[in-house]
């Protein structure tokens, strides 16, 4: 994943640290952008990333500005959360998300949307296919074809090497170990059926995929595959945007907020939500 700025400390009024235990008794750490709305949007980061990186922070702030509470958290083994980092781990990250959703359900919050960037996009889609209790899902720069992108990190001969040694160590430019890929974790990725999961998402679930045209990490063609396989899907392509929307943060936030509010204020709700009544300046979607 390309490097981007991080916001390491959250001290603003209305932001508080929340911890939740996953099904493996690991502590997941997140930051709640509290507006006192009953609705809540959960934001998931990507591969080797964290809750404190852009665009997660900017999306939470944009939702907060519109009066909608947001929660950004670290998957197990990432950021401040407990656990060891594991390559692959797609299903387990969907389980982490389940623990977060259940925690806020217990607090009587309505999950207005789940949003995932990059690998987090895969997590929210897997979640939607398995649990079917969230009506709005936003996939930002997710990868459809999980067989692609492996050679770039592990080398062209990764299959032979991992069979021979049982693992591959990925190192940075200075030669320092970043993480270890085991054969089991590699197979976790290769056996994750993205297409099958997408087709299992109920039609009652609204899914938005956002992708940039100059994404060098995940080709924009993957976004087209999501559009073909998800029953109730909208596609928004941002011209000139890279994988993390470095120069397109405002446009990304505008599209995400519009889609969330469309679900809260539009025909998808029997009654308009309190957040819809309370916030002003409705952002019209440009799909």
TrEMBL record:
It comes from the Eukaryota. Residues 39-148 form the Serine aminopeptidase S33 domain. One of its GO terms (cellular component) is peroxisome. Pfam families: Hydrolase_4. Transmembrane segments: none annotated. SUPFAM superfamilies: alpha/beta-Hydrolases. PANTHER family: ALPHA_BETA-HYDROLASES SUPERFAMILY PROTEIN (PTHR42886:SF38), RE40534P-RELATED (PTHR42886). This is Serine aminopeptidase S33 domain-containing protein. It comes from Nicotiana attenuata.
